[in-house]
Amino acid sequence: MALLLLALLAHIALGLAATAARGSRSTCLKFSPSHIPGVSVTAKTYFPTNATVDISNIFSSINTTGLPAFCRVELVIVTNATAGSFAITEAWLPDEWNERMLTIGNGGFGGGVAVSDLGGTAIPQGFAGVSTNTGHNSSAVDGTWAGPHNDNAIVDWGWRAVHLSVLAGKEITEQYYRRSIKKSYYLGCSTGGRQGLKEIQLFPESFDGIVVGSPANWMTHLQPWSIHMNLNVLPATSPNFMTRDMWVNVIGPEVMRQCDELDGLKDGIINDPRACSFRPETLTCRPGQNTSTCLSANQINALHRIYADYYEADQTYVFGGYFPGGENAFFNGLVGSPPFALPADWFRFFLLNDTQWTMEDYNATDITLGDEINPGQSNAIDPDLTAFVAPPRNGKVLHYVGWADQLISPGNSIHYYETVHEFTLGNSTLDIDDFYRLFTVPGMNHCAGGQAANAFGGVSQPRPLSFDPEHNILAAMVQWVEEGIAPSTVIGVKYKNDDVAEGVQFTRPLCKYPSTVRFKGGDPNSAASFTCA
Ligand SMILES: *[C@@H]1O[C@H](CO)[C@@H](O)[C@H](O)[C@H]1NC(C)=O
Ligand SMILES: *[C@@H]1O[C@H](CO)[C@@H](O)[C@H](O)[C@H]1NC(C)=O
Ligand SMILES: *[C@@H]1O[C@H](CO)[C@@H](O)[C@H](O)[C@H]1NC(C)=O
Ligand SMILES: *[C@@H]1O[C@H](CO)[C@@H](O)[C@H](O)[C@H]1NC(C)=O
Ligand SMILES: *[C@@H]1O[C@H](CO)[C@@H](O)[C@H](O)[C@H]1NC(C)=O
Ligand SMILES: *[C@@H]1O[C@H](CO)[C@@H](O)[C@H](O)[C@H]1NC(C)=O
Ligand SMILES: *[C@@H]1O[C@H](CO)[C@@H](O)[C@H](O)[C@H]1NC(C)=O
Ligand SMILES: *[C@@H]1O[C@H](CO)[C@@H](O)[C@H](O)[C@H]1NC(C)=O
């Protein structure tokens, strides 16, 4: 016992020594980094412990108190001197630094520093946090800034602004604390997932570990698929169209009736939608039935297409389909009216340079054209991660996706994982499980939300139950990189109404693909009642 205590004290003492690099108000206000080419500091602001942090931009905002003290350093980074293009990047540097850097990604076409995650994730866990506006200012769904022919802005969004921000962020952080960064991590979802994958594919030395959620990494197939999904039901006057009320009150409940209990628990969550072959025919309208409560033949056909993978006429795979279980969110995704605006902007301003383009103009030749042009080189689909994951780098990838994603088919996450898997087997002696793990989240919508254990340390989520590696996918990554302990599960939490203040509704393990979560019996609100099999 005494020995154990001694060992513990020694551990704590070492821990303190290791975290001695710190910042302060005076370090912050006096901070004047020596010349970094292309980078200028435009502002430094010190936020003492528990100060009001009320910062917003067009993409992200935070308004909170209760953060540990930090220094906010605002930068302008020249991305192409000839063109005069630049990105706005911020580094948030906590006084109590854990000697690690965390780069945080964006979402959609979002042109704004992810201040909400810098404050919500990086600062409370002691990371030096870095995030960029990707070279333009816009909301997540607005792509008008990309055209006409705004090539440098498109490339900045595609990969360049993140890369230059990682380089600048490392310099700034090391100069601020006068100490080298021990490890460099990445966290992002959606476009943020794409940005993380892109960076390790192009610049394997940038990170030691990346945590990516539902990546939009196959832009040239994701966008055609999105329009294909729109066209399955739109316009709203089409006989294929289904109202929000029908999705939520007719189709959703029938999916649950058919598939919810396949996993042994009736809880409105389909643990493994791959096991659910939803038959919409059961909802066929009887003669005289109110058509708001049942389906026509056109609607049934549309549903078959919506839940199916998308192939070209020659059977070339384009993209996955929706999985059963996310019906409450699908209307807000790609099958509602008006539809999610981003895909049409991609066609108008990134690919075709035709501001008048509408989804009715879509045809499958756009897939080939997209693959040829690959606007901004934004696809991040290289299955060869060797330079990042092999020694000496030994980089790690943790990837998560909600089975009820309404904006990017979860099939895309599985597809990318499997392409890496295949490449690894075919070309190396590495084992994918030693560097890349994919966790599926039953019931979770795009990056967050849904009837799901949807908080586990990812971006845009409520805070995890604890910052420990058991409940927090970022800490699980740190533990994998620094101690060699790979996560086999992460425990997610569902807060009542997704509001931390209202308390815990339930906890659940997230399972490593291809396993899925199974109910063992006991309290269905406790993660301990589940296993991965
Ligand atoms: C910050 O706020 C917390 C919670 O109210 C409190 O426990 C702590 O003492 C405060 N710290 C400082 C330095 O004000
Ligand atoms: C931030 O919160 C404070 C206190 O709740 C409020 O007074 C202030 O208006 C908020 N700021 C913004 C930009 O909404
Ligand atoms: C920089 O911008 C100029 C002017 O738009 C362009 O000609 C050049 O190709 C760009 N360079 C790079 C590396 O993107
Ligand atoms: C983005 O907004 C900032 C002000 O917040 C402005 O200084 C900058 O010029 C804008 N960037 C672009 C590319 O327009
Ligand atoms: C549209 O403009 C972008 C940016 O200049 C260019 O890369 C792309 O090739 C253009 N698309 C077509 C179809 O010409
Ligand atoms: C048909 O069903 C819808 C949805 O339940 C309801 O709002 C509507 O009043 C019904 N129409 C008739 C004519 O009963
Ligand atoms: C498909 O769309 C492209 C771009 O809008 C157009 O140039 C082409 O003519 C279309 N092809 C067919 C067969 O409609
Ligand atoms: C092995 O690598 C080559 C060259 O990159 C690639 O063409 C091939 O598809 C890979 N093999 C597998 C099984 O993925």
Automatic annotation (TrEMBL):
Residues 1-17 form the signal peptide. Transmembrane segments: none annotated. One of its GO terms (molecular function) is feruloyl esterase activity. PANTHER family: FERULOYL ESTERASE B-RELATED (PTHR33938). This is Carboxylic ester hydrolase. Keywords: Calcium, Carbohydrate metabolism, Disulfide bond, Hydrolase, Metal-binding, Polysaccharide degradation, Serine esterase, Signal, Xylan degradation. Pfam families: Tannase. It catalyses: feruloyl-polysaccharide + H2O = ferulate + polysaccharide.
